Structures are given as structure tokens and as C-alpha cells.
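Consider what follows.

. . .
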Amino acid sequence: MKNKAFLDTNFFINMIDPSKPYHKNANDYFEAFLLNQIELYTSTIVIAEYCVKGEVTELPLKYLKIMSFDYPSAITTGKIAKFIFDNKANLNLATRKIIPNDTKLLSQAENLNIDCFISNDNDCHRMHNLLRKNNLIHYEYFDIAVQCNINFGFLPNISTKDVVLDEFFKLLKKTNKNNP
């Protein structure tokens, strides 16, 4: 079983916005992580990305270990970014800058000895696969397009629910507003 998961920006976007395609999957992952006592990590970089269109009070901060981008992660990012730049032609990436965020997040997750990176970003997934194939990172990537029980073999404990997921997350939002 996985013990530590790193949650990317689009995980939170999907979890919080009911109009997003993987809203239910993201909520199922989150609930399963909580019920199975998986340590949840994210980055100040993720929070900054989320805050472009959302509010920090919408995030379930109470349940997250928030990591700052630090010196060791900067060194790892340099190595990973160089490798990605050298292999960019083979990755078929969308035209966007690589170094600003994806490689930083992948580096942070590696330096934290994360077991899995949870996202729904095709470019990031391709970078992850190349880096893992070349032993530059060691954790797994799970796409929230795939249901939680497929990736982890466990489902949220439906019998423990007293309210529907949307009400559960309204409660989380209220808690976060009171305890930032």
C-alpha cells in the first residue's frame, strides 16, 4: 500500500469544481486517502497555481503537508529539467515552458520520497514516464481519470458517510476558512 501521495494542481481543481470531468474520481481518491491514513503532500507551487482562479480557502489545507520549494529541490529540478530539455523532441509536449512548474513539482515529490504523484496532466505524465524509465525519479504516477479502486485497490468507505460528498467538502471548506 502507498503511504505518501503528492497532489497536483489539477487534482484540486477537479476535486473542488463539480463541473470538471474527474470531480467524482478526485473526491473518491481524497476520501480513500483520508480513510486509509495516506499522508497527503502538496507544494506552495500548487497553491500558487490554484490561486490563479480559485481561493486558498477552498483547499483542504487541514489534511495536507504543504512543502516549500527548497534548495535540494532546486538542484534536483536542474538535473531533471536538463534531461527533459535534452529529450523534449521525444515527448510530444504542448508548447509551454517546462521548468516553471512541472519539473519543480516532480523534483519535490522525488526529494520527499513520495510513493505516488496524483494528477491529470498528460504532459507531466509523459515527463514522469521518461524520468522514471531513466531512474531519475522513483515514484508512480496515477491519473485521476482512472478510478481510485483501479490504482489502489481500495474504495472510499461508503458506509461511513453521513452526508453526500458535496456536503462533506462544504464542511471541509468551512473548516479551512476557520483554520487557515
